[in-house]
Amino acid sequence: MIVPYTHVMLLGAIVFLMGMICTLTRRNLMMIIVGLEIMLNAAAIVFVGAGLEFGQIEGQVMALFIVAVAAAEVSVGLAMVVCIYRQTQSLDPQCTEDSRCPAGTEKASEPASGP
Amino acid sequence: MDMTVYAVFFYIIAALIIVSAGMAITRKHMVHAVLYLVVSFLATALLFYLLGAPLLAVFQVIIYAGAIMVLFLFIVMMIRPAPAGERSLTAGRLAAAFGVCGIYVAAALVLAFMAAPEAGRPMAAAAASPFAFGFYLFDRHWLAVEMVSLLLLVALIGALHLGRAGRRNQSERKEPL
Q1: Of A89, A73, A83, A87, the residue nearest A32 (C-alpha)
Q2: Which helix (H) or strand (E) holds A18?
Q3: B50 or B87, which is more confident?
Q4: Mapping DSSP to helix (H, G, I), strand (E, B) and coil, where does residue A99 land?
Q5: Domain range annotation of chain B
Q6: Structural domain of residue A72, as residue ranges?
Q7: A22–chain B nearest CA distance, Å
Q8: What is the pTM of this model?
Q9: CATH 1.20.120.1200 describes domain B3-83+90-140
Q10: What ipTM score was computed for the predicted complex, to two decimals?
Q11: What confidence tens digit (pLDDT) does each residue in A55-102 have?
C-alpha cells in the first residue's frame, strides 16, 4: 500500500497548474518552454499513477511516449527560440520581425554595420 | 518493509517536486530556473521508481534530467539573455491568465468530487520489471515505437533546418548595410 490514488492525481494536478501559470504569465520564450515541460511531466506522473492503480502497464508505455514527445518538442522549440533570438535580439514573444518591441523591454541594440 | 514508509517517501518526494517546480517557474535568472527544473525531474524519477516503473525512472534521469536539461543549459549559455529584461503583464492579461487557471482548478475540483469512493483506499505496491515492460512495449506497441522514431527524425531535421534558416536570414539582413 503506498498512498490513495487521489493523492497522486492531486500531485499531478498541482504540478500541471504550476506549468500552466508559468506558460501563461511569463514573457520569455524559454520560460514558456519550461512551463510546457512541467505540464508534460505532470501528465507522465498521472499516467504512471493510473497505471499502478488499475494494474495496467499501459500507463508506463504512455509515459514513455510522453518523454519521447517532450524530447522532440524541446529540440524544435529551442531551435525556434535561437532562430528568433538571432533575428530580433530578444526573447520577448511579442518582438517579431513585423511588430516592434513594446516599450519597457530591454532590447539589445542592433549589431552595428561592420567595415 | 513497513508500508507506511512508502507513504512517507511519497509525501517527501511530492513536496520536493512541487517546491522545486515552484522555484523554477518564479526565477528571474534562467540558469537558476533550469537547475531547479533538474531537481524537479530527478524527484519525478524517484516517484516513478516508487510507483513501480524502474525502467521509466532510468529513462527520466537519462533523457529528461540529462539530455533535455543539458540542451536547455546549452542554449541559455549560448544566447546569454539579459536576466531582468522581462516585461510584466498588464492587469487585464494577468486576470485573463489566472481566469484560465481558475477554470482548470474548478474542473479539477469537480472531477475530484465525482470520483468513486473506493479511490480513497491506498494503492497496492507493484512493479513492472524492465523485461516485462520492454516485451509489452515491442509486442503491443511496435507501430507507436516506429512512429516515435519517425517523429524524432523529423524533429532532428526540423531543428537543423531552423538553425540554417536563422543563419541565412541574419546574413541577408547584414548584406544591405
Answers
A1: A73
A2: helix A5-25
A3: B50
A4: coil
A5: 3-83+90-140, 141-177
A6: 5-88
A7: 6
A8: 0.85
A9: yes
A10: 0.85
A11: 888 899 999 999 999 999 999 999 988 888 888 777 877 776 566 665
